[in-house]
Write a structure and sequence with these properties.
alpha+beta; Butyryl-Coa Dehydrogenase, subunit A, domain 1; Butyryl-CoA Dehydrogenase, subunit A, domain 2; Butyryl-CoA Dehydrogenase, subunit A, domain 3; four-stranded mixed sheet; binds flavin-adenine dinucleotide
């Protein structure tokens, strides 16, 4: 049976974009899907061979301009990659996804020409990875006021403190550190972003152990002990760090929405096929029960609606028209709807859904991250409500 998501994408995107999606989809089927179970059971991160293969396919350079060694594509390509690879595994898809949407993107948006020339070509080939150092042990949703500090020492800056939850930390060459630089400045203008090499003296990385979501994705804590960097490490303007971070997160939230829809698309196919194969009562498939059909229909509606909405927002993003509220809303809706419906999909499959090899439990677990990652849905509603209150 053809994937339901393909039916929709075929009509929603131009032919050449669909051809690109098919290439990544086929790569996922051949190079990722057959190995996932083993990677999961052995608690492995995405293997280096797989990262290299994704690099060879150009996935780490999708929206990076050709003049900097990238594919010269756009955010739609990034989202299509999220849909194609996330269909099997969100945690594999987030590896190039975060490397681009959270790592290379801030550099593309706010970097100097020298910074872009120094890093983008290697980032675009997956030979270097930047991680996004916003969250801290004591600062999650309240990210505008970091406890990590950067203070002047002569003409340099000295960074102290700890970041956590840094996706891709295991492979990272550099971390973008969001640090407090002007404690008395106006809210949102107290911090600065710095690009710091992971092998710089005083930088210590540890993988965060025990995570049971996004299992193949690396998540690290990164400590900074007296880390001295020059002005050339500043990304964007001094005291404009929060702006760098929130501008980046707009694109990141579109990518997270694509992961939620990818999981929904997988669950729809898995459960509609199973519902026709599973025979109960009178030698007939469970797909004849209307309550089972209701779940499938609701998933199908949510998938078509989510894809249409998300791809529309990608076009707005390319035209610099996407607002923070729009990016937050699509992330909230796709993650919430997909996680609720995937739970129902598991219910209509019954006990077999408990098994890792059936595939649904992985998506069920990973969907939790789409609800809290890149801004928890509850906290993001603070943004969405503002225009409703005339603010
Ligand atoms: C797998 C994974 C990967 C991640 N990758 C990265 C990364 O690469 N870089 C990075 O910087 N961060 C990353 N994060 C961190 C992520 O962005 C944070 O988890 C998220 O911002 C929420 O912060 P917190 O977990 O500290 O929750 P808290 O801020 O402690 O909030 C806990 C809960 O309180 C409630 N809450 C908080 N604030 C509000 C509010 N204003 N209104 C209503 N309710 C509220 C919500 O229910 C929220 O979920 C990652 C997280 C995960 C789980």
């Amino acid at each position: 049976m053809a994937r339901r998501i393909d039916t929709y994408l075929q009509h929603l995107i131009p032919e050449e974009k669909f051809a690109f999606y098919e290439t990544v989809r086929d790569f996922g089927d051949a190079a990722i899907a057959p190995h996932l179970l083993q990677w999961e059971r052995e608690h492995q991160l995405v293997p280096d061979t797989c990262i290299r293969a994704m690099g060879d396919l150009g996935l780490f350079g999708l929206p990076v301009p050709e003049e900097y060694g990238g594919q010269g594509g756009d955010n739609t390509d990034l989202v299509l990659m999220g849909l194609a690879i996330g269909y099997h595994s969100q945690s594999v898809a987030i590896t190039p996804g975060a490397a681009l949407s959270l790592g290379a993107k801030p550099l593309m948006l706010c970097g100097t020409e020298a910074q872009k020339r120094a890093h983008l070509p290697d980032l675009a080939h997956g030979e270097r990875m930047f991680v996004f150092g916003l969250s801290e042990p004591g600062r999650g949703s309240d990210a505008a006021n970091p406890q990590v500090t950067a203070q002047r020492r002569g003409s340099n800056w000295v960074i102290q403190g700890e970041k956590c939850w840094a996706t891709n930390a295991h492979w990272a060459s550099h971390v973008i550190v969001h640090a407090l630089t002007d404690p008395n400045g106006p809210n949102g203008r107290r911090s600065t972003c710095f690009v710091v090499p992971m092998d710089h003296p005083g930088v210590f990385y540890q993988e965060m152990k025990g995570k049971r979501v996004w299992e193949q994705s690396s998540t690290g804590s990164i400590a900074f002990a007296d880390v001295e960097v020059g002005d050339d490490a500043v990304l964007g303007a001094v005291n404009d760090g929060f702006k760098v971070m929130v501008t980046t997160l707009n694109g990141g939230r579109l990518f997270v929405a694509s992961l939620a829809l990818a999981s929904l698309a997988f669950a729809l196919d898995r459960s509609r096929i199973y519902a026709e194969e599973r025979i109960q009562f009178d030698d007939k498939p469970i797909g004849r029960f209307q309550r089972v059909q209701d779940v499938l229909v609701d998933m199908d509606i949510a998938l078509e609606r989510g894809l249409t909405w998300l791809l529309h927002l990608c076009r707005l993003y390319e035209d610099n028209q996407l607002t923070r509220e729009q990016a937050a809303k699509v992330k909230i809706d796709c993650s919430r709807t997909a996680s609720e419906l995937v739970m129902l999909a598991m219910e209509i499959c019954g006990g077999v859904a408990c098994f890792d090899e059936f595939g649904l439990i992985r998506h069920h677990n990973d969907l939790f991250v789409t609800r809290v990652g890149e801004g928890s849905n509850f906290a993001l509603k603070d943004l969405v409500v503002r225009p409703l209150r005339g603010r």
